[in-house]
Amino acid sequence: MVGAFMRFLGALCVSAAIVIGSVAGAAAEGGSFFRDIVFDKNADRFEVRLGALSYDSGIFSPQEQTGVVINGEFLFPSPSFLEWLGSPRPYIGFDYAPKALQTDFIYAGFNWEAYVTKRIYLTGSLGGSLNNAPNLINPVGYKALGCRALFHLAAGVGFDVTDNVTVQLYADHFSNANTCARNSGQEAAGVRFGYRF
User: Which CATH topology does 2-196 take?
Assistant: First the structure.
């Protein structure tokens, strides 16, 4: 039951990322509905995010293990030269899985937010990561990720409780896009909170 919910949550978050891309394209074309979408609301702010995710839960890779992931991120203000890209904010983050034989990740990249109302927004991230899996090709008891360096993709749906406090349904995905001999992929999905300043 929990696994099915987490797969649904992952699908919801991926759908959010697809919508962000579609909305950004339509906004660039000047569609009347999309003029109300706001991409740079928090572009000038720092933010800390922390949450609990379900290990190995997502829609792009099979769930082979269960457990908890502690997720944390720190976002920086968007540099002005990225305004033409929708003012993405640079971020650094981690996925820490305390259970034995589970892989941890550190990652970095860019995060976009698209506000569809004053408080509800879609979020998506694109970047790279490093993992600590001891055996990348023929592991026993955990997934064969194939490479030490992987892509990091993430998506979510957020709600601003206040101007400074936010909550998100969030999912992330790590894989090498078949650039290495093995590509099992690793995912997590859950809830996290953010504080902006």
Answer: Porin (2.40.160)
